[in-house]
Amino acid sequence: MNKPAQKVAELYYFELLPLHPQPQPLESLTSYLSRLAISNGFISFAALSELVFPAQHQASLYRFKDCPPLSLGKLPLITSHPATILLPTTFYHLARKFGRSVATAQVTHFLDGSLAQHLRFCPRCLQDYNCYFLTWRFKALRGCAEHGCHLLEQCGQCGQEIPLLTNPLSIGVCPGCKKALKSVVSPALSKRRREASLRQQRDLAYLLTPEPMEANEVAPQVVKQLGRDLRQRRLSRSQSIREVAKALKLPSAQIVFIEQGRLKQGTASFRAYQIYANYFDLTLFDLFAMVRAELV
Ligand SMILES: [Zn+2]
Ligand SMILES: [Zn+2]
């Protein structure tokens, strides 16, 4: 082997993990990182941190949770998956659809009040897919439509909340009592709740998945049009901003920011968007579809 070829071979050997599964559709980054490490035979949080972000402090890996990190570090290299495959494990595409910055702090601010900071899970999904889904992070999603049961907020055996990333790394195991999280039966959803969970699940799946409307030059127009649509609906009910805000238990400013499609100097939260859309019996998917039709 000549010298340059040997160099490439060494790099390949040392940089690429022997097993690099692809993320499952809608799998969260924290789940993927844990699964990646475990499938390659290491369970040390420090080792994972060192491998993905060698120049940074360990805590930074935990801080990102499922927000898009400033850089994916060595993840594309060690997994041989490009950013287009890895970013959908984060809130990246959701933030872009609303024309927001994808910096960690800004995404965290936009999603304030919407996310659980611990694992919520469907035991039967763990059985079938052996991973954690990004959609489970959203508190508005109450259950698993596929299996017709509630999402659990804690270990069914010892009652402990499960962190998103555990140390040592694990998937589907309670770090407190060491029992399998899939071994508990979750209460069934009522028919109404199951339908609501299905709608919510579809909505989140759409928002978390890439699409052309989230391009930099299009997203601000979409957000403006979305605000105009909602304003029109409010006016057609002859309601004032104050009346709507009171009914939804939201500050009036949040309604103003949504209707004006503001992207700076006062912006609405994702939670406010969801609540305001639901007020008109619409999901955000419905609203984006209408805007798409109007802007074409
Ligand atoms: Zn399930
Ligand atoms: Zn437990």
What does this structure look like?
There is one protein chain. The protein has 296 residues and is an all-alpha fold. 48% of the residues lie in helices and 1% in strands. A two-stranded antiparallel sheet has the order 1-2. Strand 1 and strand 2 form a beta hairpin. Helix 3 crosses helix 4, helix 11 packs across helix 13 and helix 12 crosses helix 13. The site of one zinc ion (ZN) has 6 residues, from helix 9.
Task: Write a brief caption for the model.
The protein is mainly alpha-helical and 296 residues long. The protein folds into two domains: 1-210, no CATH class; 211-295, lambda repressor-like DNA-binding domains (434 Repressor (Amino-terminal Domain), Orthogonal Bundle).
Fold topology:
Elements (H helix, E strand, L loop, with lengths): L2 H13 L13 H11 L5 H8 L5 H7 L10 H5 L3 H4 L5 H6 L6 H7 L12 H7 L13 E2 L4 E2 L40 H18 L10 H18 L4 H8 L3 H9 L9 H10 L4 H12 L1
Antiparallel strand pairs: 1-2
Helix pairs in contact: 3-4, 11-13, 11-15, 12-13
The chain binds zinc ion (2 copies).
One zinc ion binds next to loops.
What would the keywords be for this entry?
single chain, globular, binds zinc ion, disordered N terminus, two-stranded antiparallel sheet, 296 residues, 2 domains, 434 Repressor (Amino-terminal Domain), mainly alpha
What class do helices, strands and sheet pairing give? mainly alpha
- Biggest sheet overview: 2 strands, antiparallel
Oligomer: single chain
Structure ligands: zinc ion
Shape: globular
Average of the residue pLDDT scores = 90
- Computed Rg: 21 Å
Number of helices: 15
- Helix content estimate: 40-55%
Instruction: Say how many strands there are.
Output: 2
For the biggest β-sheet, the strand order reads: 1-2
Q: Report, as a whole number of angstroms, the end-to-end distance.
A: 56 Å
Sketch the topology as an H/E string, one letter per element.
HHHHHHHHHEEHHHHHH
Low-confidence stretches: 1-14
Strand content range: under 5%
How many domains? The number is 2
